Amino acid sequence: MPGTDRCLKCSSCVRACPVVAEIGEMTFPGPRTVAVDAPRFGPSRVAIAEVAWLCSMCERCLEACPSRIGLPKAMLDMRASLFPNVRVRPGHERLLGNIDLYGLSIEPVRKVGGETMPKAKIAYFPGCIASQREVETMECSLGLLKAAGAEVEVPSGLVCCGSPLVKLGDERRCERLMDANLKILERYDQVVTSCPGCTVQLVEGYGLEALHITEFLTEVTGTKGMRFRPGSENIRLAVHHACHLSRGVGPHTKERTYELLSEVPGIELVSTGDETVCCGAGGSLLSGYPDVAGRMAARKVDSAIFCGAKIITAACPFCAMNLRRTGGIEVMELTQLISSRLRFPGQH
Questions:
Q1: DSSP per residue over 126-139, as a string?
Q2: Is 126 within the bounds of a domain?
Q3: Is the predicted pLDDT of residue 345 greater than 60, yes or no?
Q4: C-alpha closest to that of 157 among 188, 134, 180
Q5: 242 shares its domain with 204
Q6: Quick one: 298 and 259 in the same domain?
Q7: Is 114 within 8 Å of 124 (Cβ atoms)?
Q8: CA atoms within 13 A of residue 55's CA, in its CB half-sphere
Q9: Entry pTM
Q10: Each residue of 206-239: pLDDT tens digit?
């Protein structure tokens, strides 16, 4: 396990863990117990398997650890060692069944992609959620990329990036998906994503030149090609920084998000103080423990409402989907929000 012998037993990781904060140490003992103590001292593998998939992989424990122990990696290693010998949660079983049947983590309702031979140098990788559930995210992302002057296409034949399988510990299925995607994506010079989990997986797992759309629109194309409708109604907006984006891709993405929002007219940002706190969507938590993920999302929604926000935005379709489940406030994925105020050719 990566550097776990440096653990000081200070419990900083436990205090930082949003899942512990939500359901308590008696239900989820926290990163140190699961990822550090269990592999070295017990408890039994059966007992630890009961709680190993409660982690949302938000990486707050890594930020909090004074010894900089790779707790998220240790958690993944623990799951990978457990996975072949334990029965996973019902939601995880459905995910695995969908992977086997469709190559996607969710049952598809539409076909995506139209080119078999690339005509552009940039591929847009939609991911399972944006291609099948949060479809507006994919459509708005492609619209923004076009408005910014980028020539992008969605290749046919793409399957799940494998990130959900990494979080589950299923290395065999993940390798199969990666092989299929690489044969398609290696033809392109650049890959753009909307899902931060896909971004991290494509960069770290595949070794590809992949950028999240917040990075691409600010670092590659810029926003000068975008035109916004004047006189848009003012909205009070709360921002949720997706964990896999702000900590997985990098903290610079928070600045990129605000940079994009600063271009959009009529937005008044509302500070909630919990912008970087996990909403519960990631790390297989939503699929395995939807009740816990829902409680974490509801806490964020309540905070936004209390601070006077009318809309929450997140640069992640998965986070947007989980936050929207709670009701009570309008939730717009970032590209949807920006596109709603964009002036397309022919509009006045």
A1: -HHHHHHTSHHHHH
A2: yes
A3: no
A4: 180
A5: no
A6: yes
A7: no
A8: 31
A9: 0.93
A10: 999 999 999 999 999 998 888 887 766 899 999 9
**CATH no. for residue 319?**
3.40.50.1860
pLDDT band at 42 (very low <50, low <70, confident <90, very high): low
Domain that holds residue 186: 122-220
Express as a percent the part of the chain with pLDDT over 90.
81
Amino acid making up residue 171: E
Tell me: do 198 and 146 sit in the same domain.
Answer: yes
Per the listing, tokens 């983590």 go with 105
Paired sense of beta strands 235-240 and 210-212, if any = unpaired
Q: How many domains does the chain have?
A: 3
Residues 168 and 204 in one domain: yes
- Establish if 28 belongs to a structural domain: yes
Sheet with 267-269, side-by-side order of all strands? 267-269, 235-240, 311-314, 330-333
Domain holding 53: CATH number?
A: 1.10.1060.10
Joined together, the tokens standing for residue 210 give 């992949």
Q: Is the separation of the CB atoms in 223 and 148 below 8 Å?
A: yes
Confidence of residue 348 (pLDDT cuts 50, 70, 90): very low
Q: Mean pLDDT over residues 35-60, rounded?
A: 84
- Reported as type and span, the H/E element at residue 322 is helix 317-325
What's the rounded mean pLDDT across residues 233-257?
96
* Residue 226 included in any domain: no
